[in-house]
Design a protein that fits this description.
The chain is 22% helix and 33% strand. By secondary structure, it is of the alpha+beta class.
Amino acid sequence: MTFVTLSTGLILGAMVLPILLLLYFLRLRRQPLQISSTLLWTSAVEDLHANSPFQRLRPSTLFLLQLLALLLVILALMQPQIEGEQQREGRHIVLIDRSASMNAEEIADVTRFEEAKEQAKALVEQLHGGGIFSSGGSETMIISFADTAEIVSPFTDSEQQLENALASIQPTHGRSSISDALKLARAYMTNVDPEKQGISSSESSQLELFSDGNIADLHEQALKQGETLIYHQVGEAITGNVSIETIAVDRNPESRNEVQVFLSVANHGSEPVTTDIELSIDGIPIGIEKITIPAMDTSETGNAIASIRNLVFVPFELTTQGVVQAHVLHTDVLDLDNIASLVVPPPRELRVLLAEEGAPLLQTALEGLELAELKVVTPQGIQEMIAGGTASSFDVVVTRDVSLETMPRGRYLAFGGEMPVPALRRYAEGEGQVMLVGKEDHPVMRFVRFEEIVATKGNAIVPTSGAQVLLEGSSWPAILHYRGEGRSIVYVAFDPIESNWPYLRSFPFFIYNAVDFLGRSGDVLATTPLQVGDAIVGGVPVGVSSIQIVEPDGAAHAVPIDRDGRFTWGPIRLSGVHRVERTEGVSKIVAVNSPPEESLLASRVEVQIGAAKVDASATRTSSFIQLWPWAIGCVLLVLIIEWRMYQRKVSGSKQHPTDAFGIGK
């Protein structure tokens, strides 16, 4: 506690306190009274002769009350004040950060988000809870923000309404962006009628930010005239964390049915971490890899840079749809970034257009494959479809002993015939040959035992740029792959009828490999994970009126379908696997991963908004609470008590009359 005018009070006390004491030390002057006899008053007369100006100070309640009142007056003149928390009059905007990093649990079973809500609740109680230090008459608004912002409660002075609004805020796994929150705040907090409200617009806005300070766009903002920002720091300044930065899936080039998973794992802590990472498909573990990640790097400027290590899992077979998920088996304060998922869709069913001359040799082999459609046309019909552009709607065009006039953009499997492509142009008729060397690592040549193949004749070709020989015969290239000008062509330079190949087991293997390679080449192996804050969109068959979307935490949301059979649901709140369910089961699976930038958990002790830096100590901004008004109030109370006691004493003395000698009966 400090005193503004200490010397004034001391001087006054030195002047008036002795006067009060002197009044009680001095004897009272007696008034002369006429009495009948002074025989019995001899002692009194003697005392009158020996009267001195001072007497012994006797205990007196009135004296103590008067002394207390005087001391309180002196105290009030000293203007005492204590340091307290500053609460400006006017409107307050509470900004609650509910981004992914606020889900960190540095205290058992208590997240940063829950701690922020508790601090905000304490502020609301102080502003609107009544009592000595409450700010009566002010209004408060609550806005929550992550990748988007939302007004949780408009301006109100109701403590209960504000507390209910705080309790209703749910955390998200999104990025932390404050720009939308500031726009909403500024749209509502300006005082447009200063005379009516009693305060000016420059005093009408105080931003109360409850966050760990990891806000990506805060430095891009700026405080406007009249705005102040109070930063309430949540979380520890030093917090380690391990997270999955990226996840990717790719086909094994040596096996089209095998996939590989690639991970980037980051360490945001000051100590190296060795941990296991589990890989699973549809929740079933299929492998574990161990990885050691060094501690984060600290540059000369003091900025911490996460240490990142890459990990490649052993290839595994995946021929159907599945959810590939990687899980870091390391305990830290944030669990949501230890898991990353990808949805691998089912293999696409192919549409094949076939034209062959003579016996239906290829048709028999293709009918044994699982195709969405196999359309068989004549050699003349396929020429017309290619010229008319309708052939482009098929995934693969297959010909046997058909010389195409043109080959527009597309994917082709051709046996024999002449190709209108310079790199595959025939220069002579090839004589009979056996097969010598095959490119067995190419997807088209998997499980193809070429050593037994004998061709009696074919097309002799000298491959040029863009043509890759997949099978080399004793006299001329037997199988080639050409890619260029938007075309992908697997060309067999002989008619299978002119060989023993149709009788060998490798023949259907080759057709399956070639159709699969051409038809699915360039397909997206895994669907790109959505981001928190995005929307899930899709379509349903005719007759479906509604669906439900199930979030990772089990919450289900009914979603209506529009007239075109389309639906939209969002924004996405949580990371993880979302399921789109119809009555007959799951129709779509969507993977959502946490944003990598939210994995840096070190809480900031200061934040920068524009050019202004706000220290976390501003959470308890110092101000001085004046105590002298309370001292004056106590003086009035003491005077009332002193007056009451004096009146009782005076009235009591009147109830005992004296006799003629002045002695009470």
